[in-house]
Specification:
heterodimer, A: 119 residues, Globin-like, globular, B: alpha+beta, Beta-Lactamase, Alpha-Beta Plaits, 13 strands
Chain lengths: 119, 351
């Protein structure tokens, strides 16, 4: 069985740092940040952890319906989606994730675009 | 620059919030830069109760009047991030002044990491639970294919060493005119009928200490004494055989297909082992199996034929009548017997 990116980059030890970095970026960003204004910290961290683990093939449990339900009452524009995508790429680069692996992660993210935008 | 000036500079710039609290008025008299960044400077209220409405002022006063320490936590939003700060009040040394030092440590990251660990451990726990459930399913499947002791051996060593069982008894069964039944009925009906019958056989066998080894189409093969020794293995298969027939004849009364079983019993040694590498199955073979299979060919429909090897192991509860020598060739050389229960009326047990 092929090793998941989650395992390739050192499992939870590395992914936890990626999650934290992404969390910082999300909150500081004025495009996507406002979506999280009223989200409780533990809940947001929980979502971020599962989100990154899902994208990297870790032990996560996000199904498409789950994602759809979590975002259906948000006014997400293509701009927001693209901005988050940039932030993910940026973060992964900071952790020396290989370009082809970043592509894989972004493709996994892109695959869920319609779940968020059309919801 | 004097030492005092350097100290004050440091105190202002340090990443820890520091303030001095007048315990008489419960107002802050000094706030460093970090403290002001978090909780506001001179423009904000200096009163402790205004700055930290959730703080238990009474408890704080009580602790500090005895010269002790008081700790608390407070949360606030900085931009959109929830910050958590640990507050630590310590009574200052000078006995004349009633002053306390308030030190505020930023523990936001610790709280965030705690949340992440919670989230991750829940994920892992759920996964572990799923893996456990899958493992149980695999185990259940494997236990259908082999006895538990063989499975335990397989789990520990990856192989199951063949074992010789010196004295066991074997029961084999098939149905008369199976070909004709197959032709006359829908395959799905046959499968469901056999499923029903074999399940009943398994249940009866289990009650008498027999374990099914395998079925192959219309042939059913069970053994007593493998892998756990059974003292009265001959009696086990004989009792099961009689009850198989009793069950079948009752069943035939209310079902369109009249199954006519032929049974062969024999005793002797067998080898038990897992056979195959990719597709493994626990199998039992050897003299006792050969004898039972040969013996079965001499049984008429709804009768039990017994091999001489099992005769001496059975007591008077069973009647053994010699069978006429076979006319067909090749025939079993041994003198075979028709096995019946001596007194079926007093027989107890199911089916």
């Amino acid at each position: 069985m092929e090793k998941s990116l989650f395992d390739k980059y050192g499992g939870f030890s590395t992914v936890s740092k990626i999650v934290m970095r992404l969390y910082d970026k999300l909150l500081d960003d004025d495009d996507v940040g406002p979506f999280f204004d009223d989200v409780d910290m533990p809940r947001l961290i929980d979502h971020q952890t599962k989100f990154v683990a899902t994208l990297m093939g870790g032990p996560a449990s996000f199904t498409d319906t789950h994602i759809q339900r979590a975002h259906h009452n948000l006014d997400i524009e293509p701009l927001h989606f693209d901005r988050l995508k940039d932030l993910i790429a940026e973060t992964l680069e900071e952790f020396d994730v290989a370009p082809e692996d970043i592509e894989t992660v972004l493709a996994a993210f892109e695959a869920r675009r319609s779940l968020l935008l059309d919801a | 620059m004097t030492i005092e000036a350097i100290n004050e500079q440091l105190l202002r710039a340090i990443g820890v919030g520091v303030a001095l609290l007048d315990l008489e008025t419960l107002e802050l008299s000094f706030r460093n830069d970090t403290f002001m960044e978090w909780f506001g400077g001179p423009e904000a209220s200096a009163r402790l109760a205004d700055l930290f409405p959730t703080l238990d002022i009474e408890a704080l006063g009580a602790e500090l009047s005895d010269g002790g320490k008081f700790t608390a936590e407070t949360s606030f939003k900085l931009k959109r991030r929830r910050m958590t700060v640990a507050m630590d009040f310590t009574r200052a040394g000078n006995a004349g002044e009633r002053i306390a030092v308030l030190v505020c440590q930023n523990i936001t990251r610790i709280k965030e990491l705690e949340s992440m660990i919670d989230s991750y451990s829940m994920m892992v726990e759920r996964n572990t639970h799923e893996i456990k459930r899958e493992k149980e399913q695999v185990e259940k499947l494997l236990l259908n294919m082999m006895p538990r002791s063989a499975y335990e051996e397989y789990k520990s060593f990856g192989v199951v060493a063949p074992r010789i069982f010196e004295s066991v008894s074997v029961l084999t069964l098939d149905f008369e005119n199976f070909d004709r039944i197959l032709e006359a009925n829908d395959p799905a009906v046959i499968v469901s009928e056999l499923n029903d019958i074999y399940t009943a056989f398994d249940r009866i066998g289990e009650q008498f200490g027999c374990e099914r080894v395998r079925t192959n189409g219309d042939s059913y093969f069970a053994v007593s004494g493998v892998p756990d020794p059974v003292l009265d293995h001959a009696e086990s298969v004989a009792k099961a055989a009689v009850r198989f027939l009793r069950y079948l004849s009752r069943r035939n009364e209310s079902h369109p297909i009249r199954w006519q079983a032929r049974l062969g019993l024999a005793s002797g040694p067998v080898v038990g082992s897992v056979v195959g590498v990719q597709k493994y199955i626990y199998d039992v073979f050897g003299p006792a199996v050969e004898r039972a299979t040969r013996t079965r060919t001499r049984a008429q429909g709804m009768t039990v034929a017994a091999h001489p090897s099992i005769r001496d192991l059975l007591d008077s509860r069973f009647t053994l009548t010699p069978l006429a020598p076979a006319k067909a060739q090749p025939e079993p050389r041994e003198d075979l017997f028709l096995l019946e229960e001596s007194n079926p009326a007093t027989a107890t047990g199911p089916a």
